[in-house]
């Protein structure tokens, strides 16, 4: 399927209401997969943190003015970035998640991060294919009941040296 009607951009605090609505439209399964605990309601206070992660950023996907996905990126260390993804159920499987992840990865690389990590429940079969579809290579590691899918980013290219 195509994502040609979906566009991605940075999310801003002005998007909090629309991102809250996105979470309200998601199924309990999608919310549990995103937050790793049963969730019935995602409060606006949490959405603010997802939209503006501390020292990080977020990318949203929208179609016809409606937000259909969010990727939140927050640093865990100076070179490791945690990425949390959610795509509204009816848009899953159409390339939205991998497109947001690709955007985040490109940005992360430019900002000097060396690795991304996505945390997933052990039975979440969607994360590794999403990483692959984004053109990245993920290595799953089981840690404390969750799977950490670690993605190595290419080293940042240095500028060409000037001729002597
Ligand atoms: C994980 C998620 C963000 C992926 O977004 P998406 O828009 O569905 O992903 P894409 O359409 O880009 O598809 C990426 C790949 O994952 C596969 N995929 C998507 N959903 C899947 C599922 N439920 N089970 C197995 N594979 C799945 C797609 O088939 C595709 O693989 P392919 O290229 O081999 O066909 C989305 O499914 C989601 O929001 N899930 C609930 C929250 C979650 O699990 N977040 C991840 C933890 S942070």
Automatic annotation (TrEMBL):
<dbReference type="GO" id="GO:0016747">
    <property type="term" value="F:acyltransferase activity, transferring groups other than amino-acyl groups"/>
</dbReference>
<feature type="domain" description="N-acetyltransferase">
    <location>
        <begin position="6"/>
        <end position="156"/>
    </location>
</feature>
<dbReference type="Pfam" id="PF00583">
    <property type="entry name" value="Acetyltransf_1"/>
</dbReference>
<dbReference type="InterPro" id="IPR000182">
    <property type="entry name" value="GNAT_dom"/>
</dbReference>
<protein>
    <submittedName>
        <fullName>GNAT family N-acetyltransferase</fullName>
    </submittedName>
</protein>
């Amino acid at each position: 399927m195509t994502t040609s009607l979906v566009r991605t951009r940075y999310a801003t605090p002005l998007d909090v209401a629309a991102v809250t609505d996105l979470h309200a439209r998601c199924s309990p399964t999608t919310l549990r997969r995103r937050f790793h605990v049963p969730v019935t309601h995602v409060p606006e206070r949490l959405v603010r943190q997802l939209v503006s992660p501390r020292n990080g950023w977020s990318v949203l996907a929208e179609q016809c003015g409606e937000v259909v996905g969010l990727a939140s990126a927050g640093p865990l260390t100076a070179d490791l970035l945690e990425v949390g993804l959610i795509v509204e159920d009816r848009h899953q499987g159409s390339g939205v998640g991998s497109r947001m992840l690709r955007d985040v990865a490109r940005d992360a690389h430019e900002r000097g991060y060396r690795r991304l990590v996505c945390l997933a429940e052990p039975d979440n079969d969607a994360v590794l294919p999403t990483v692959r579809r984004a053109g990245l290579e993920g290595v799953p590691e089981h840690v404390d009941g969750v799977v950490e899918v670690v993605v190595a980013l290419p080293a940042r290219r240095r500028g060409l040296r000037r001729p002597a």
